[in-house]
């Protein structure tokens, strides 16, 4: 499948898949979307002394890098990705410069150079484990405070937004754990609710009216 690097509306890059008319991040602003969905409504919302995070769709590493930049406590980060982004593509991404984080280039590099299936201490308060894995194969139980659900959209990969997948997400979260996603589709919300999540609609990032945040309750 053809892949190309494009510039989104806020000046940051993403990977575009023309055959699907789909991007790894919002064409309305990759960095803006990451901050709005995953940092402001996820990381900053979770009130724990340390945070264990599962990212569904590690992709370009943007969400991971921004989380590292925003880390105000110990973070144990697990990124799941079935099809890792190629080194040549990573080198074309402009996140370090757009985030004005030139002094953190070495950390961005460490994130992408870290070997898969092993835990790495990127900084003293940020550990990273990258797992090459299909989402349906996740078997963690009561492990995470927060899930970044950043899979490709339901329009192109509906099998990633089903009750079966969200049942796996529900199991992986600790009680009162939170899942955030850019999606606000009614079918997605209903699938989350069907497996036990308490779901709320929130204002969306640029280009989207709403997004969803789901909390594991009842345990």
Descriptive report:
The protein has 219 residues and is of the alpha/beta class. Helices cover 27% and strands 30% of the residues. It is built from seven helices and eleven strands. It has helices spanning 30-43, 62-70, 87-90, 95-98, 105-113, 163-172, 186-194, and strands at 4-7, 13-17, 22-23, 50-56, 74-80, 119-123, 126-131, 144-149, 173-181, 197-203, 210-216. It has an eight-stranded mixed sheet with strand order 6-7-5-4-8-9-11-10, with helices on both faces. It has a three-stranded antiparallel sheet with strand order 1-2-3, with no helix packed on it. A hairpin with a 2-residue loop joins strand 6 (119-123) and strand 7 (126-131). Helix 1 (30-43) packs across helix 2. The protein is globular and about 45 Å long. The termini are far apart. The model has no long low-confidence stretch (mean pLDDT 96).
């Amino acid at each position: 499948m053809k892949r190309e690097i494009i510039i989104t509306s806020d000046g940051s890059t993403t990977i575009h898949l023309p055959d699907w008319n789909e991007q790894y991040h919002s064409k309305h602003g990759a960095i803006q979307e990451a901050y709005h969905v995953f940092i402001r409504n996820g990381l900053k919302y979770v009130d724990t002394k340390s945070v264990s995070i599962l990212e569904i769709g590690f992709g370009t590493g943007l969400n991971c890098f921004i989380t590292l930049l925003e880390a105000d406590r110990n973070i144990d980060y697990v990124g799941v990705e079935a099809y890792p982004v190629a080194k040549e593509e990573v080198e074309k991404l402009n996140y370090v410069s757009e985030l004005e984080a030139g002094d953190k280039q070495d950390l961005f590099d460490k994130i992408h150079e870290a070997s898969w299936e092993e835990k790495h201490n990127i900084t003293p308060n940020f550990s990273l484990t990258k797992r090459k894995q299909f989402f349906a194969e996740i078997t963690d139980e009561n492990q995470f405070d927060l899930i970044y659900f950043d899979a490709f959209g339901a329009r192109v990969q509906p099998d990633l937004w089903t009750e079966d997948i969200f049942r796996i997400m529900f199991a992986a979260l600790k009680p009162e754990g939170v899942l955030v996603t850019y999606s606000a589709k009614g079918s997605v919300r209903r699938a989350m609710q069907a497996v036990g999540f308490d779901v709320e609609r929130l204002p969306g990032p640029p280009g989207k009216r709403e997004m969803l945040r789901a909390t594991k309750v009842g345990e």
